[in-house]
Amino acid sequence: MDYFVKEGSVVRTIWGKSDTILFIFAGAAAEFALNKSVDWLYFTGKLPADPIGRLFSTVRYAREIVFSSKEDAFKAIDMITQIHRE
Hints:
By secondary structure, the protein is mainly alpha-helical. 71% of the residues lie in helices and 0% in strands. The chain contains five helices and no strands. It has helices at 10-15, 18-34, 39-44, 51-66, 70-85. α4 (51-66) packs antiparallel against α5 (70-85). The longest helix has 17 residues, at 18-34.
């Protein structure tokens, strides 16, 4: 099978460990909270209503892309694109 991300890649190692994923998302959340240029998201209501659900769906899509064939990865990427257009 022709994978989207090669077997043995550091990307597969990172996205294959739940502790590493949580660490990355915790760091991203902390940076987001400190970044004043995104304050408008709080006031416009553009933040997701279900941040935990959003976290898990993001991880699910990332794993679909990283551990799938090229064809399946492109389908997942197309789905993400469609969701963000709505």
